[in-house]
Design brief:
Length: 272
């Protein structure tokens, strides 16, 4: 993954600037980065090292259904970014105009970086939870959950602090136009609050589908990824005013967190 990412960055520079290939060069660079990652991965099978092999298998509808069912939460989590971009661009185009859309483009880059860090922690915990769940080791499940929550909350607070303190230099990394810098630097601290809620929601989502509690992770993923997120982006500016549009993401993540606590409370009461 690292080799593919580094190759993509280098080839972007090579094709866009020295070779002057423009957008086509960026597309080719992205494709070649993926090809390099694939070549590194497939070398495991070509060299025939280790026990993992590609062999014959029997099609099983039950297995396909199980795989798809387990993958639904991650599917909706991945849809979160394009849904957010689509809804924000639609709303901003009709309220704050081109400058609002340009501001969101800057914020979306920052969001992608924060989401990458926080999602990485949640995804890194999945095999640990899966192993502990398979062993029926409840203590390890709890320990991994607490550790993951501390790491993600700590990381989200640090990210928010950096963005709040250095919001102008951060925005200028992406665009130096004075009007855009002013709007984006004002919106960033409000928009970035969503990262703290997102850090918690990602941990819960990963925990639930790593321990076969798929219906819970589905509810969380659909809420934060599509339904609640879209509703918040469209309704917050109407209810609170156009300038509050940047709080929509935080509102959606906050509502999702409330849903998580409702699910947890309902389960606890049911056991009682």
């Amino acid at each position: 993954m690292c080799a593919g990412a580094v190759a993509n960055i280098f080839l972007d520079w090579l094709f866009i600037f020295p070779m002057k290939m423009g957008i086509m060069g960026a597309a080719v660079a992205s494709g070649l980065g993926q090809v390099l990652s694939f070549v590194i991965l497939i070398s495991h099978f070509i060299r025939k090292k280790g026990d993992l092999r590609i062999g014959k298998f029997t099609h099983s509808f039950a297995l396909v259904k199980k795989i798809c069912n387990r993958g639904v939460p991650e599917c909706f989590s991945q849809l979160n970014t394009p849904v957010t971009a689509f809804c924000y661009n639609w709303v901003l185009a009709g309220t704050l105009g081109d400058m609002g859309v340009a501001t969101f483009s800057v914020l979306s880059f920052i969001y992608s970086l924060a989401n990458g860090v926080l999602s990485g922690v949640a995804q890194g915990l999945q095999p640990l939870w899966g192993q502990a769940f398979g062993k029926n080791d409840k203590e390890e499940l709890k320990t991994d959950f607490r550790t993951g929550m501390k790491i993600n909350l700590g990381a989200s607070v640090v990210i928010y602090g950096i963005l709040a303190l250095f919001r102008i230099p951060v925005v200028r990394l992406f665009n130096s136009e004075p009007e855009l810098v002013e709007m984006a630097s004002g919106a960033l601290p409000i928009f970035a609050i969503s990262f703290v809620f997102m850090a918690v929601n990602l941990i819960f989502t990963a925990y639930y589908y790593s321990t076969k509690q798929t219906w819970k992770s589905n509810i969380i993923a659909v809420s934060r990824g599509i339904l609640v997120k879209a509703a918040a982006i469209f309704l917050v500016p109407v209810l609170l005013g156009e300038t509050w549009v940047w709080a929509s993401a935080a509102a959606a993540e906050g509502i999702t967190l409330v849903i998580i606590f409702i699910i947890g409370t309902h389960e606890y009461c049911s056991r009682k």
